[in-house]
Structure formats: C-alpha cells, structure tokens
Amino acid sequence: MKKVLIVSSSLRGGSNSDILAREVQKGALDAGNDVEYISLKGKNIKFCIGCLSCQKTYKCVQTDDMADLIDKVQNADVLVFATPIYYYEMSGQLKTFLDRCNPLFPQKNKFKDVYLITSSYDDAVNASDRAISGIKGWIECFEQSHFAGAVVGGGLNNPKDAKKQDDLLQKAYELGKNV
Questions:
Q1: What is the pTM of this model?
Q2: Which of 83, 91, 105, 177 is most buried, taking the most CB atoms under 10 A from its CB?
C-alpha cells in the first residue's frame, strides 16, 4: 500500500482536469492505496517571496495553507498533480504551489513517483509539453524522485468534456491503479 497524494489545481469545480484526477483517485483506491485528494480551490496560498529562510528552518515564514500542504507532500509516497493547460503551460495555481514547496528542498522526503494529469482545449500532441517540462524541472530538485508518467487530455473544449471520453477516463483510472 502506498500513500498517494493527488493535488488538483483547477479553480473551476468539476473541471476536466479535476474529472481526470478523480479517476486517478478511484483507480488508486481500488488498488488498495491510501489516497488523499486535495483541491487548491479555496486554499490561501501566497506567492514565494524568495527569502530562502526555509532552507535553514525547513518551514516558510509566511502564514497560509501551505504549511499543512507541504507536510502532506513530504510524507506521500506518490504525488499526482492535475492541471488545466493555460497558454501551453501548467496553471498559475500549480506553479505557485510548487514554488512554495521550497522548504522540502533541503530535507528528506518520501515521494518517489510523480505524475502529471493535464487537460487542454488544444488537441495537439505537444500541448502539454511545457507543463510536463516544468514538473520534470521541479522533480530534478529531489534526488529520490522521478517523473513516472502523465495522462494528457486534449480537445476538451467545454467543462466536463472529459466525462465523454471513455478512453481518457480509462487511462486516468489505470494510472491510479498502477501507482
């Protein structure tokens, strides 16, 4: 049994990336894993101010929802990030979240496998490449971790279009089942 943390960064309830993240959750639960699903919607997450105090104290000087979230990231075996694609990149919410995970850099962390779930209006095969590259860049800061894969949903033009794509839902479910 693995401890799986799913972080959904869409601020729109029932969004396509959120639908896919929920399918990953179902698969991971069906496989017998301990799964926690977190939505960044409604979370108070301030921008990193770049003071680097966290590199010495292992915690951020700012007071917001990130202290609890950082603890969850640090203690998960598997991380799954879900994001809508805006202008061919991950959402600002996810980027801010990742930046605020800076206190984890000098510490020992459990997470090894890191996955990305994306949804985009554009159905080009490379529509999510920059977001994948961004996640890989974040992962490179953590020696114990690696990019374990992605589920990329393209051509999702309207909210809840992901619910109509059985093959995409199945890919997300299988990712969860095989974490």
A1: 0.97
A2: 83
